[in-house]
Amino acid sequence: MRKEFWENHPLTELTHTEWEALCDGCSKCCLLKLEDEQLNEYVFSRIVCQLFDADKCQCGDYKNRKKLVPDCVILTPENISDIAEWMPATCAYKLLYLGKPLPDWHPLVTGDKDSVHKAGQSVKGWTVPETEVEDHEIETYLIEGIV
Fold first, then answer.
1. Do the Cβ atoms of 81 and 97 come closer than 8 Å?
2. 105-140 pLDDT, tens per residue?
């Protein structure tokens, strides 16, 4: 990867490896989100996708995620403009798309892949699998202000 590529190149010019390295591993994008159409905003829950591996705090089948979970979104430089609005506020893809810097705890800044967890910016340790939640219970798992 090129040195500090996120500061020196637009998203559309990143290599596949650089694009993937932007992900800080927070897994907030794996959280179930509900749209509040009246407020025109998204509300996150503690509920995670069925593929989520809570021990590793990542997708359990990243390569096949779209095939296994058709609603899963594959984020690309071409679709970031359509997706950024519901991505977590700390998401590197969203931040760079909006012209903002990476947070100081981001693994690319710290050189430590666990810095996102150490900073308390990941979902590690507090999620509930979607397979354990009934539809009528979803609202009891909504969270505010942390994503």
1. yes
2. 999 999 999 999 999 999 999 999 999 999 999 999
Please list, residue by residue across 99-130, b when 16 or more beta carbons sit within 10 angstroms of its beta carbon and e when fewer do.
eeebbebbbbbbeeeebbbebebbbbeebbeb
What pLDDT does residue 146 have?
57
Distance, in Å, from the CA atom of 130 to the CA atom of 133, rounded to the nearest integer, reads 5
| DSSP three-state, residue 1 | coil
3-state SS class at 32 = strand
* pTM, two decimal places: 0.91
C-alpha torsion angle, residues 54, 32, 99, 23 (rounded to 10): 20
Residue 147 has pLDDT above 80, yes or no: no
Q: What is the pLDDT of residue 126?
A: 95
Range of the domain at 90: 5-143
Q: Is 92 left (phi over 0), alpha (psi -120 to 50) or beta?
A: alpha
Tally the domains of the chain: 1
CB 24 within 8 A of CB 107: yes
| Sequence-ordered strand ranges (E) for 49-87 | 52-53, 58-59
